[in-house]
Amino acid sequence: MTTQSVALASEKQTYINQLSEHVGSEVVLKGWLYNMRSSGKILFPQLRDGTGVVQCVALKNAITPEVWEALKGLGQESALVIKGSVRADSRAPGGYEIDVVTADVLQQVHDYPITPKEHGTEFLMDHRHIWLRSRRQHAVLKVRHTVVQAVRNFLDNDGFTLADSPIFTPAACEGTTTLFEVDYFDGEKAYLTQSGQLYNEATAAAFGKAYCFGPTFRAEKSKTRRHLTEFWMVEPEMAFASLDDVMTLSERFLSYIASRVLEDRQEELKVLERDTAKLEGIVAPFPRVHYDDAVKMLHEGSEKGEMETKFEWGGDFGAPDETYISSQFDKPVMVHHYPAAIKAFYMARDAERPELALGVDVLAPEGYGEVIGGGERATSLEFLKEQIALHELPEEAFQWYLDLRRYGSVPHAGFGMGIERCTAWMCGIEHIRETIPFPRMLYRIRP
Ligand code: 4AD
Ligand code: MG
Questions:
Q1: pTM of the model
Q2: Domains plus CATH for the chain?
Q3: Is residue 235 lining ligand 1, measured as CB closer than 6 Å?
């Protein structure tokens, strides 16, 4: 490095998304080479810095021969600092171009593994640590960021208190078949949390309205485009609330998230070629459909030959069933009153038809399926003891939970939403593995 370049690297950085404030002046940009074109005595290095990509113009006779030589052969993802003046150019992708005054190469790269040619998914997933730099992945994760921000804003402004639940837990919440077991101390087993709900029921009794938001683990042996073994779930819980209240909260919540994504992520939605009309349609109220009626729809579907097999009342919906039900509406649809037999032990029952649980799944359109699951919780101590026994769960591990029914038990309700499923839907992408920086799946724990 020349003395001049050391000085350049230590100069104050301007970010590409702030160029509009610097038109006509000189700035120092720090980043990585995204692409390079050249034409005789002009180089067009495209620089990315995490906030955007900008095209720079380096004229051979406007820079020193050393800088020209240093820039000339650079490969993709070389690290560099460019000093140049900002020019507004309506033809440029971001609206600005940089006329290069000088530059400093921090690292030359010539063998970047991800090239503009098509790569297979496995290859890209193996290179996830650098795949994150590409425009599309960048856009997806920016949308995720906005979904998370919207989730927090919505709940914080709606009177919910953030009260996070533990990751190590002594018992199952969502069934024993999907538990990850870990060795705790002195031979004691612990499990990675499947849901913070049981703890939320405690914090809702303490704060009225509470939520937790954190990593969630399911040892699910499903290799579908909707399943991760580690995902992020946000779970609001409200004291003195019913199934209806949960549905109202869900539709307001999703409408707000969609509006925030539309407002804040226009550029990213363009990169993803998302049909934004689909997102504009996510406006409360959403249709509410009783499980019985959803089953009727599926039956009509098989009569019309649109569903392959006849669905049997009592079963859980598979992905094709969910897709068919939601295709009957142009908005997310809330299916409620599922058979209790296919739901978790803590669900409250319909007083008139105790075989039905006061649970709801919100099914997203366009085949995205269940994004929210929730409902009203059972309040009776005796009933819950029975259910814990029926589900073959160890009662001693639930004593603290049963205390919530001993001391001030009230109707309460809540839901959980997977951030990745919501993000995939907002982005309109096929698989949720791209919506988390480093996905964990049945056959993937690396990088
Ligand atoms: O429907 P689930 O299992 O509900 C619960 O865990 C409740 N205890 C939540 C509550 O009421 N507080 O999961 C809720 C949501 C699903 O609708 C889905 O969005 C997401 O969590 N989810 C997954 N996301 C990615 N990969 C998986 N394996 C998921 N399992 C559930
Ligand atoms: Mg569910």
A1: 0.96
A2: 3-107 (2.40.50.140), 126-435 (3.30.930.10)
A3: yes
